[in-house]
Prior knowledge:
Elements: H1 2-26, E1 30-34, E2 38-39, E3 44-51, E4 57-60, E5 66-70, E6 74-76, E7 88-92, E8 97-103, E9 110-120, E10 132-135, E11 139-141
Parallel strand pairs: 2-11
Antiparallel strand pairs: 1-3, 3-8, 4-7, 4-9, 5-6, 5-9, 9-10, 9-11
Amino acid sequence: MKNIYIHILIGAALISVLGLAVFLGKSGSVEIRTDKKIYAPGDTQVVSIKNNYGRTVCFSSCYPYRVEKRETEWKSYEYDSCSDTDVVDICLGKSETKKFKITLDEVETGINRINIGACVDCKIGDSFKEDKVFYSNSFEVE
Protein backbone atom coordinates (compact mmCIF):
# COMPACT_ATOMS: atom_id res chain seq x y z
CA MET A 1 0.00 0.00 0.00
CA LYS A 2 2.88 2.34 0.82
CA ASN A 3 4.35 1.84 -2.69
CA ILE A 4 1.11 3.03 -4.32
CA TYR A 5 1.27 6.35 -2.44
CA ILE A 6 4.91 6.81 -3.44
CA HIS A 7 4.07 6.16 -7.11
CA ILE A 8 1.12 8.57 -6.95
CA LEU A 9 3.34 11.22 -5.33
CA ILE A 10 6.06 10.77 -7.96
CA GLY A 11 3.47 10.94 -10.76
CA ALA A 12 1.95 14.12 -9.33
CA ALA A 13 5.41 15.69 -9.04
CA LEU A 14 6.24 14.84 -12.67
CA ILE A 15 2.94 16.28 -13.91
CA SER A 16 3.58 19.47 -11.91
CA VAL A 17 7.09 19.85 -13.34
CA LEU A 18 5.85 19.29 -16.92
CA GLY A 19 3.01 21.76 -16.42
CA LEU A 20 5.42 24.38 -15.10
CA ALA A 21 7.76 23.84 -18.07
CA VAL A 22 4.88 24.31 -20.54
CA PHE A 23 3.67 27.42 -18.67
CA LEU A 24 7.14 29.00 -18.62
CA GLY A 25 7.64 28.21 -22.31
CA LYS A 26 4.48 30.13 -23.22
CA SER A 27 5.05 33.07 -20.87
CA GLY A 28 8.46 34.16 -22.11
CA SER A 29 9.26 37.50 -23.62
CA VAL A 30 10.97 39.13 -26.54
CA GLU A 31 14.48 40.21 -25.56
CA ILE A 32 15.56 43.53 -27.06
CA ARG A 33 19.18 44.61 -26.51
CA THR A 34 21.24 47.53 -27.74
CA ASP A 35 24.91 47.05 -28.65
CA LYS A 36 26.09 49.73 -26.17
CA LYS A 37 24.83 51.54 -23.09
CA ILE A 38 26.12 55.03 -24.03
CA TYR A 39 25.87 56.81 -27.41
CA ALA A 40 26.66 60.23 -28.84
CA PRO A 41 23.94 62.11 -30.75
CA GLY A 42 23.82 60.80 -34.34
CA ASP A 43 25.51 57.48 -33.51
CA THR A 44 24.28 54.30 -35.16
CA GLN A 45 22.80 51.83 -32.71
CA VAL A 46 22.56 48.08 -33.39
CA VAL A 47 19.43 46.55 -31.86
CA SER A 48 19.12 42.77 -31.41
CA ILE A 49 15.74 41.10 -30.98
CA LYS A 50 15.40 37.50 -29.76
CA ASN A 51 11.99 35.85 -29.61
CA ASN A 52 11.80 33.92 -26.33
CA TYR A 53 8.02 34.38 -26.23
CA GLY A 54 7.18 30.84 -27.29
CA ARG A 55 4.97 31.94 -30.20
CA THR A 56 5.48 33.82 -33.45
CA VAL A 57 5.62 37.60 -33.01
CA CYS A 58 5.32 40.07 -35.88
CA PHE A 59 6.03 43.76 -36.31
CA SER A 60 4.43 46.79 -37.95
CA SER A 61 5.33 48.14 -41.37
CA CYS A 62 4.61 51.71 -40.18
CA TYR A 63 6.27 51.75 -36.77
CA PRO A 64 8.42 48.65 -36.22
CA TYR A 65 9.92 50.45 -33.20
CA ARG A 66 9.50 53.66 -31.22
CA VAL A 67 12.02 55.40 -29.00
CA GLU A 68 11.00 56.58 -25.54
CA LYS A 69 12.75 59.03 -23.22
CA ARG A 70 12.71 58.75 -19.45
CA GLU A 71 11.45 61.89 -17.80
CA THR A 72 9.41 61.42 -14.62
CA GLU A 73 8.04 58.42 -16.53
CA TRP A 74 8.73 56.93 -19.97
CA LYS A 75 7.43 59.17 -22.76
CA SER A 76 7.37 58.28 -26.46
CA TYR A 77 8.79 60.74 -28.97
CA GLU A 78 6.26 62.33 -31.32
CA TYR A 79 5.92 60.46 -34.61
CA ASP A 80 4.16 61.62 -37.77
CA SER A 81 1.17 59.53 -38.76
CA CYS A 82 1.89 56.78 -41.22
CA SER A 83 0.47 57.50 -44.68
CA ASP A 84 0.62 53.83 -45.70
CA THR A 85 -1.65 51.02 -44.52
CA ASP A 86 -0.16 49.52 -41.36
CA VAL A 87 0.42 45.83 -42.11
CA VAL A 88 2.50 43.03 -40.63
CA ASP A 89 5.94 43.38 -42.20
CA ILE A 90 8.37 41.06 -40.37
CA CYS A 91 7.79 38.00 -38.18
CA LEU A 92 10.07 36.09 -35.83
CA GLY A 93 9.31 32.47 -34.98
CA LYS A 94 10.16 30.91 -31.63
CA SER A 95 13.86 31.40 -30.73
CA GLU A 96 14.58 33.39 -33.92
CA THR A 97 16.69 36.54 -33.80
CA LYS A 98 16.97 39.69 -35.88
CA LYS A 99 19.24 42.74 -35.83
CA PHE A 100 18.62 46.20 -37.22
CA LYS A 101 20.29 49.62 -37.07
CA ILE A 102 18.89 52.93 -35.86
CA THR A 103 20.55 56.31 -36.35
CA LEU A 104 20.16 58.35 -33.17
CA ASP A 105 20.17 61.75 -34.90
CA GLU A 106 16.78 62.86 -33.50
CA VAL A 107 17.07 61.23 -30.08
CA GLU A 108 17.56 63.71 -27.24
CA THR A 109 20.31 63.47 -24.63
CA GLY A 110 19.33 61.52 -21.55
CA ILE A 111 18.07 58.02 -20.79
CA ASN A 112 16.11 56.33 -23.58
CA ARG A 113 14.80 52.88 -24.57
CA ILE A 114 13.27 51.14 -27.57
CA ASN A 115 9.57 50.22 -27.51
CA ILE A 116 8.46 47.54 -29.99
CA GLY A 117 4.81 46.72 -30.50
CA ALA A 118 4.03 43.23 -31.78
CA CYS A 119 1.12 41.09 -32.83
CA VAL A 120 1.11 37.42 -31.84
CA ASP A 121 0.57 34.57 -34.32
CA CYS A 122 -0.30 36.91 -37.21
CA LYS A 123 0.94 36.66 -40.79
CA ILE A 124 2.93 38.93 -43.10
CA GLY A 125 0.54 41.17 -45.03
CA ASP A 126 -2.23 41.03 -42.39
CA SER A 127 -3.50 44.32 -40.98
CA PHE A 128 -1.27 45.09 -37.96
CA LYS A 129 -2.94 45.05 -34.54
CA GLU A 130 -0.67 45.48 -31.52
CA ASP A 131 -1.14 42.65 -28.99
CA LYS A 132 2.02 43.10 -26.91
CA VAL A 133 4.69 45.71 -26.27
CA PHE A 134 8.29 44.79 -25.52
CA TYR A 135 11.06 47.10 -24.27
CA SER A 136 14.81 47.22 -24.65
CA ASN A 137 17.36 47.90 -21.98
CA SER A 138 17.79 51.60 -21.28
CA PHE A 139 20.64 53.48 -22.93
CA GLU A 140 22.05 56.97 -22.61
CA VAL A 141 22.62 59.59 -25.28
CA GLU A 142 25.25 62.07 -24.03
